[in-house]
Design brief:
Oligomer: heterodimer
Structural class of chain A: alpha+beta
Shape of chain B: globular
Number of domains of chain A: 1
Distance between the termini of chain B: 29 Å
CATH topology of chain A: tRNA-splicing ligase RtcB
Helix content of chain A: 25-40%
Largest sheet of chain A: 8 strands, mixed
CATH superfamily of chain A: tRNA-splicing ligase RtcB
Distance between the termini of chain A: 37 Å
CATH class of chain B: Alpha Beta
Shape of chain A: globular
CATH architecture of chain A: Alpha-Beta Complex
Structural class of chain B: alpha+beta
CATH architecture of chain B: 3-Layer(bab) Sandwich
Chain lengths: 477, 139
């Protein structure tokens, strides 16, 4: 495949064959040629063939080989003649990250670190299976799917402030539970308030470096402060919604005369019944995920109260922000000097709206939307702020994480889970996990260094560095 | 052709290659491969049986649909499946009986988990000596 370097960190895949637009990859030269890059770049080119795609098929520096879309992909489709592809959102619909700050300094928390991690492990279920923190009847689950995190306010598990600090206010519009199958509801019913497995985690962290004082102050974070990062999604409900609609659209695409280079790119024209129903069901799964992360945060607040014997309000356990990184959204963006309605697919990419944007919470509007970038569990994670450049260049999007370097199997061959545990503990990080084997799969060496990824998006202006966080304790799914 | 499966590296996901003398046996073996990534059985107690009927627009899509149906049975019906018997298999239709242990969260050991079977690089092919299937699982 032909790839041309356009700038220090910008590469282009020129348009050829069935591609409707070029591909554009933001990458660090050192990260560019890593394992699986050929396949990932082919996937960027494949996405460029989808009907209605505007400007470019974009990939972020954490790009890696996925199924259908690459992970780290962004594609905006014209709202009038474009398509929606459930594979462009992924199975884990609204997988995302939430950053919770506390009023505790690291010196106050350190002596209670073991007790706190123990309490978090008890309060936040991990792994696969049906055992979330919230028991729901089917009628309640249906309401939760339509209302999102707002459903939890009446139950005393969320506040108005929490909703204000969640993307979409924690509630996607257009959610219609009649588009969600009984199977999806059955899979999700017992799972609200659970981490799940794979790369999902909860980390206790400390803010170890602040690079942008003004933005950090607006976000309520400062050096030495203890924070909690939660990474989870829509669990079985979202997985089943994607499965159901990929199945339906595999046929729909062929009927609409769309020639797909990969069947996982199955899609349907935005004005079709399949697309309308998928977007209604996807919004339900997004709401499930917002509520799931909210419920996990509620459990985190309880754990802090147990260990420190003060109310979470007095401990200052407050939500900084909650962002989605697997989602499709109707947004309005400037195209050729005109405001245009588009459907933005973000598959392993984060919304990153800049200062002054009306969709950024009032308290953050002067500095831009908080963007939360988890790294691997041994090194660091980042808090960034959105920019106007992202709005102009990448449909208001930036990277979402470190990006995998080694496959899970390859990672297991490097070191065992027990060895990874010893290394993390040697670095002073408390580790709790459902399965030690999965520790090896998610070990730091299995990921790119998130500092390189964040360095690229900061350098090209797709987000701005605000603060760095280091792990103190890890709870793995 | 003998019967078996192997897990194949795929950066963020896992590929499963399955082979067997007949297509039906490939489906059954794919079920065993899937559960090797989901949950270890206890091999004790009574099994619960489920009869399945599935349809899809092509034989390989049927293979993905079959695996997704088994995942649904694990998560929603809470069955750790150990027996897979495909009774009837056409191009677009499958009838099967599966059986498994009711999930005991305190005792069964989970193995990482699988979100879904994808259609990426999905195939089911007849070879000279038998059948081979390939599925990428989102884990």
């Amino acid at each position: 495949m032909r790839v041309e370097r356009r700038d220090e960190f910008v590469y282009e895949i020129p348009r050829e064959g069935p591609m409707r637009v070029p591909g554009r990859v933001y990458a660090h030269p050192g990260l560019f040629m890593q394992a699986g890059h050929e396949e990932a770049l082919q996937q960027v080119a494949n996405v460029a063939t989808l009907p209605g795609i505007l400007r470019a098929s974009i990939a972020m520096p954490d790009i890696h080989w996925g199924y259908g879309f690459p992970i780290g992909g962004v594609a905006a489709m014209d709202a009038a003649d474009g398509v929606v592809s459930p594979g462009g959102v992924g199975f884990d619909i609204n997988c995302g990250v939430r950053l919770v700050r506390t009023g505790l300094g690291v010196d106050e928390a350190k002596p209670r670190l073991d007790a706190l991690m123990h309490q978090l492990m008890r309060g936040v279920p991990q792994g696969t299976g049906p055992h979330g923190a919230l028991e729901l009847r089917e009628s309640e689950l249906k309401r939760l799917c339509e209302e999102g995190a707002a459903f939890l306010v009446r139950r005393g598990c969320a506040t108005g402030d929490d909703l204000a600090h969640t993307e979409e206010g924690g509630s996607m519009s257009g959610a219609d539970v009649s588009a969600v199958s009984g199977k999806a509801l059955a899979r999700g019913r017992g799972q609200v308030g659970s981490l799940g497995s794979g790369n999902h985690f909860l980390e206790l962290q400390v803010v170890d470096r602040v690079l942008d004082q003004r933005a950090a102050a607006a976000f309520g974070v400062g050096a030495g402060q203890v924070a909690v990062m939660i990474h989870s999604g829509s669990r079985g409900l979202g997985h089943q919604v994607c499965t159901d609609y990929v199945g339906r659209m595999a046929g729909a695409a062929a009927r609409a005369g769309i020639d797909l280079p990969d069947r996982q790119l199955a899609c349907a024209p935005l004005d079709s019944a399949e697309a309308r129903e998928y977007l209604a069901a996807m919004a339900c799964a997004c709401n499930f995920a917002f509520a799931n992360r909210q419920m996990i945060m509620h459990q985190v607040r309880g754990a802090f109260e147990q260990v420190f014997r003060r109310s979470w309000e007095r401990l200052g356990v407050e939500l900084v922000y909650d962002v989605a990184h697997n989602i499709a959204k109707r947004e309005v963006h400037p195209v050729d000097g005109e405001e245009r309605a588009v459907l933005v697919h973000r598959k392993g990419a984060t919304r990153a709206f800049g200062p002054g944007d009306p969709d950024v919470p009032a308290g953050y509007r002067e500095v831009g939307q908080p963007v939360i970038i988890p790294g691997d569990m041994g090194r660091e994670s980042w808090l960034l702020a959105g920019t106007e450049t992202a709005r102009r260049e990448t449909w208001g999007s930036t990277c979402h994480g470190a990006g995998r370097l080694l496959s899970r199997h390859a990672a297991r061959k490097v070191r065992s889970g027990a060895e990874v545990r010893r290394e993390l503990e040697g670095a002073g990080i408390v580790v709790k996990c459902a399965s030690t084997g999965s520790l090896a799969e998610e070990a730091p060496f299995a990921y790119k260094d998130v500092a390189d990824i964040v360095g690229v998006v900061d350098a090209v202006g797709l987000a701005r560095k605000v603060a760095r966080l280091r792990p103190l304790g890890v709870l793995k799914g | 052709m003998s019967l078996g499966f192997e897990l194949v590296d795929h950066t963020a996901d896992i590929g499963v290659r399955v082979w067997g003398p007949t297509a039906a046996e490939v489906f059954e073996e794919a079920g065993r491969a899937l559960f090797s990534l989901v949950c270890d059985p206890l091999r004790e107690g009574e099994l619960e049986e489920v009869e399945l009927e599935l349809e899809a627009e092509a034989a390989d899509l049927l293979l993905a649909a079959w695996l997704n149906e088994l995942l649904y049975l694990f998560e929603a019906r809470q069955l750790v499946l150990t027996e897979f018997e495909v009774r009837e298999l056409g191009e677009r239709r499958l009838r099967a009986r599966v059986a498994g242990e009711p999930l005991d969260v305190g005792r069964h050991i989970m193995c990482g988990g699988v979100k879904a079977a994808t259609l990426h690089e999905l195939r089911l092919e007849q070879r000279s000596a038998g059948w081979e299937g390939f599925v990428v699982l989102d884990v």
